[in-house]
Specification:
- The protein contains 9 helices and 12 strands.
- By secondary structure, the chain is an alpha/beta fold.
- The protein folds into 3 domains: 76 residues, Winged helix-like DNA-binding domain superfamily/Winged helix DNA-binding domain (Arc Repressor Mutant, subunit A, Orthogonal Bundle), CATH 1.10.10.10; 99 residues, Periplasmic binding protein-like II (D-Maltodextrin-Binding Protein, domain 2); 102 residues, D-Maltodextrin-Binding Protein, domain 2.
- Strands 3, 4, 5, 6, 7, 8, 9, 10, 11 and 12 form a 10-stranded mixed beta sheet that branches. Strands 1-2 form a two-stranded antiparallel ribbon.
- This is LysR substrate-binding domain-containing protein.
- Keywords: DNA-binding, Transcription, Transcription regulation.
Length: 297
Amino acid sequence: MTSINHSQLRAFHAVATEGSFTKAANMLSVTQPTLSGQVKALEDQFGVRLFDRRKRKIELTDIGRNLFDITFRLFSLELEAEQVLTSARGLKRGHLRIGADAPYHSIPFLAAFHRRYPSLRLSMSIGNSEKLVADLLDQRCEVAIAANVPADPRIFSLPFRQDYLVAFVDRAHPWANKRQIDLTDLAGKRLVLREATSTTRRTFEAAIDAAGITIGEVLEIGSREAIREAVAAGLGIGIVANSEFGDDVRLKALEFAGPLMQSMEYVACLNDRRTTPLVKAFLDIVRESIADGKGSR
């Protein structure tokens, strides 16, 4: 009976998860030629093709997708076993990967977690809610902190903060002396907005569509930091969640009169992973924060 090389299987799983040999090599801390050689050796051993290699991307073949379903379960159980053994030592070792839609909500949780478990390794990636949910389902992170997490039986979500949208302008803007504007004031105005898949953009566009408002040109930028710089440079009016506005002296926040455009922030994990030691420990931190009144508005 032909045995499967565990390192080759892990190499395949990393490439299938990351969708890139380069990213997978970085994740496993090996060189790309080494990783490619491991995947090729696995393919050659069983006489199969696991990936269709194209110029700029790779795609799983049918047998690759079937194998990925198996390795997904296999390495999930391996990680769960490691966390069970880690918990026997009082959570003194382990690596918790967190995805967040913004640092403002997530850093206080990470800081509290680090204070309680200083020997554990933490890493955080930033992305919009859609990407974070995909990362969670594909196990690129164990915990996601994001707005408006969709209902999905595979996902457990814990609401911790309700937020609302505000507009903001540069200090030289004619509205800089205002405290509040009407949503209708944005008709025909040039706006600086996140990408179409972001929760902020979707919430805002739902509100203006419901109000029958036609805005002007949209400058679309894929990061909050770049949006702040664009608005500060006078390139348009920005829209952001109130808790993420910060204290940039170049900018002025403007609340909207009337009903608030609201979103809810959640801490989410895979439903079948919520009781694993590392994830449970993080959820406990979040619950304690909510109970102390630090996690919700």
